Amino acid sequence: MRRFGWAAIWLAAMGGAQPALAGEPESFLIENVRILDLGGADPVLSAGDVLVRDGMIVDASGAVPDGVRRIDGNGRVLMAGLVDMHVHIWDRASLGAYLAAGVTTVRNASGMPMHLDLAQRIEAGDLLGPRLITTGPILNSPGPNAQINHQMVSSADEARAAVQAQYGAGFRRIKVYSNLTAEAYAAIHDEAERLGMTVMGHSPEGTRRQGMPHDVPFKIAFENLLDDGFTTFEHTETIVWHGLRDQHDVEAMRELASRIAASGIAVDPTLVAFYNLLRVAETKGGYLTRDGVETLNPLLVAQEQPNYERWTHEDVERNRAAFEFYKLATRILAEEGVSLIAGSDAGIFTNIPGVSLIDELALLEEAGLTRHAVLRAATINPAEVLGEAGEVGAVAAGQRADLLLLDGDPTEDLSVLRSPAAVVAGGHYLDRVELARLLASASVHDIERTKRNVVQGLIAQDADVSALGL
Questions:
Q1: Pfam families, from UniProt (predicted)?
Q2: What pLDDT, on a 0 to 100 scale, did the predictor assign at position 462?
């Protein structure tokens, strides 16, 4: 597996492996751009200038103050920065990879204490990175999907205590997982609601029993979750597994999609996560060495070796057929009015930070969504789901200056997203040279720091640190 490009080696030698200090945001005017508005029934491009001050977009209709830096956009397209609603960050080294891909906000889906610290440092300008939103540690019960970094709860008392501990630590978002017992899930739901915490994640199934899902129903029916106030259900394949009991039934999927739409719960399809599993199977493991994997955390790569081995030998035709149904199911969700958001599951398996979101957008288009709908899934829809409509997600005065400058129009060709001319993150203008430096820095890892991050996370949830084998 290729580990480092020449730029990463140079950065390591120069001691530049860390994301840059952000410092105070500057004031600047981006002139001569075509501003992309995704808020209406159809996308609109209009000529204009955008003034940025103190990390915010301000009204540029009046006289521009003296001393403001002027940047010629040369007729390029300016749009809101992208949001990746499902990532796994193990260390700050990966932050640059997200910015290099135009991702200016991420929602981390498996929290550790270091994520709260990173979020504060980025917001304060001490560290350059995408705005970081995080859940607490994943709440799960013992079972086939349990992982070492999950916070295990089985009883109602354990579940309530875990939610209270996460709240006390500073987390305000809960992520639940599929093995949760009915008792634990009910307590999580009640305690989160009492504390004003939001809930997202895999749909909890209850204790897994032999014969599930085809011969034995789940302990927790999927329909029972629809009035529980989830912000998002994660992964189309999870919805098919739980909601359809893994039956690839088009009519049943449409009926289920209609009920999800009525519930108001958004769905994060993460098609790219299953696509990458399939590509590993199709290439007999060759996909694991493609360009970009050097930005995956080496500790994660070591832990994923059993999964790499499994998927290298998986049944290609069966999984290819499953993936085609997942794409169809995603299109049906959109057709029935479900709000879709874009997430990549980057940072686990072989899901590369940053660029995996662009891959996800391409797969959403392949599934049948219009480019307008695809772009909204990474901008406006996440803002609405996060309760931040009017604050982020558009190019408008009064919104956070998270922007993406492109050489072409993404409503005509999504591939222009793969090489941004510049990115504005929290008011910091990053040109192509800086974006290349940030991407290279994401390939230079501090394994000892990553170990400390994980160990601190396990200690915070009273987990068995020795089980990690560090």
A1: Amidohydro_1
A2: 76
